[in-house]
Please model this.
Amino acid sequence: MNPTQAATLRAILTSQANAALGTLHDGEPFVSMVPFAILPDGKGLVIHVSGLAAHTKDMLHHPTVSLLVMAPQDPETPPQALPRATVQCTARQLTDEDPVYPAARMSYLGRFPDAEMTMALGDFSLFVLTPLAVRLVGGFAQAANLTPLNLEQALAG
Model:
C-alpha cells in the first residue's frame, strides 16, 4: 500500500459515519445502512444494532459481511470516480464480558454520543467487524486489494 492509498483509506473511514452493510438474508444479498466506528487499534470496525433488524439476524446466522463506505458526492466528480472502500469482514456480537467490549463501546460512543440511550436497551448490541480483505477504489483506475494489516496501518497513520 502506498502513502496515497493509506491517506485515501484513512480519509474515507474517518470522515464518514455511515456505511452500507451487506449481509446474506434467506440466501439472498441484503444491504442496509449502519453507523460505524473504528476500534482504537484499527483492527476492526464497530456497529451497534437492534435485534429486530434483519441485518442483525443475518449476521448471527452468516457472520461474513461486507461494508461499503463512500466519500461524499462532489459535483465535480462523476459518481463512478468517488473514492470508496469495501471491507470484507467477519461479524461477532459482543457481550458485556467480552474483553473488546469496553474499547468497542468507547469507540462507538465517541463517534455517536447520542447512542448512550440505546446502549442501555437490551434489544441493542455491539458487533465487531473484523476485516478479512479491503478493496480500495481511489478514483478511476485507482483500485487496489489491501490486507487487514494495510487497513490497520492506514488508520494508525
User: Anything to note?
Assistant: The first helix runs from residue 3 to 15. The chain has a mean pLDDT of 94. The CA atoms of residues 94 and 101 lie 6 Å apart. The longest strand covers residues 124-137.
